[in-house]
Amino acid sequence: MRTVYLDHNATTPVHPEVLEAMLPYFTEKFGNASSIHASGREAKEAVEDARSRVAELLSCKASEIYFTSGGTESDNFAVKGVAFANRAKGKHVITSPIEHHAVSRSCEFLEKEGFSVTYMPVDSEGLVDPDELRRALHTDTILVSIMHANNETGVIQDLKGLIRAARESGAYFHTDAVQSTGKIPYEISDLGCDLLSISAHKLYGPKGVGLLYIKSGVKIQPWNQGGGHEKGRRAGTENVAGVIGLAKALEVARRDMDSETVKLRAMTTRFYERVKEAIPDVHVNGSLTRRVPNTLNLSFKGVEGEAMILSLDMKGISVSSGSACTSGATEPSHVLLAMGVPGELAHGSLRFSFGRSNKDEDVDYVVDILAKEVRRLRDISPLYSKAGNRG
């Protein structure tokens, strides 16, 4: 059976160049980077070299890069670490209702600890208005955390405008850049944020490693206890092979970004145009113009998203209804509901996220199968029949 993987926002395969760079650190170069003997020093040197290369690629200082176990840890570290380190100044945090759960549940945790959290509304395209953020800022606001690109819709925020607004009040600004990194160009020095999260496995690197950029001077409390790793801010034995893989994945992503962007934008545009021709009552969720080039989120009226996922999976096609971290959830997407998408349409949403391995013929194959499965599911759906939409 033919297989087509269109869930690259959930995870990506490790790029061959990344695997090649990592392999020696599983075998002959297996030392612990915290050991002081020759094997440990070799591992430590490799980690620091990777840190310097990452910093150069992101346009920041090597001393501002802290390696973690991935995006979730980085988000938790940023939100909780800044909040607890600065609570003498204030206990107000601002975020949005479309954040990844790593941020939103960290904020819920803070609320239980006596902090107040403001959830900025988003418009129908999934965007936060910088002027509305400016009005929400208080003298006791210590942190704003708003993601760069949304994991479900691919919508890109006006991050510079949001950061400028936060700057005016003196609040720190954190952004979850897990879904933007490797897909769109940016430089941390140009963005002006104080903290930024990245996860390697979203950009053809290994699982289990990520980073948190912490601008020099940011007051933050370590969030896990142990040894003095990562300059005393993140305890735990360094994932040497993972760190090497993260640095190489970033390097490859930056090198190939222009060509991949052209290819993926053309592919998603072709896909959307073909879907509109083949399937009636399709709604695109989020901005079509302000989005990462590989992602489309579509709702199909009168059809359950989970039923479509299972039907497509039986045909060898992998898609999702949103974040991989909530794949077992039966509730409609919190992101789509926050954008004002009706519950019925939110239930019928699918996220298509293309990647390096996809080809133009995949588009035609998936659209043909998708059209047949949507017709089949609508034929047995009382919701679609009662709506008077069947021809």
Describe the protein's architecture and organization.
By secondary structure, the chain is an alpha/beta fold. Helix content is 42%, strand content 13%. It has a seven-stranded mixed β-sheet, sandwiched between helices. It has a three-stranded antiparallel β-sheet with strand order 9-10-12. A two-stranded parallel ribbon has the order 1-11. Helix 7 links the parallel strand 6 and strand 7. Helix 10 (305-314) packs across helix 13 (360-379). The two termini are 32 Å apart. The model has no long low-confidence stretch (mean pLDDT 93).
Give the strand content: 5-15%
Biggest pleated sheet: 7 strands, mixed
| Quaternary | single chain
State the helical fraction: 40-55%
Radius of gyration: 22 Å
Backbone structural class: alpha/beta
CATH architecture of the largest domain: 3-Layer(aba) Sandwich
Mean pLDDT: 93
Counting H and I runs of at least 4 residues, what is the number of helices? Answer: 14
Described by the principal axes of the CA atoms, the overall outline is globular
Any idea of the CATH topology of the largest domain?
Aspartate Aminotransferase, domain 2
Order of helices and strands: EHHEHEHEHEHEHEEHHEEHEHHEHH
CATH class descriptor name of the largest domain? Alpha Beta
Strand adjacency order, main sheet: 2-8-7-6-5-3-4
Number of domains: 2
- By CATH, the superfamily of the largest domain comes out as Type I PLP-dependent aspartate aminotransferase-like (Major domain)
Number-wise, the strands total 12
Question: Between the first and last Cα atoms, what is the distance in angstroms?
Answer: 32 Å
Poorly predicted tracts of residues: none
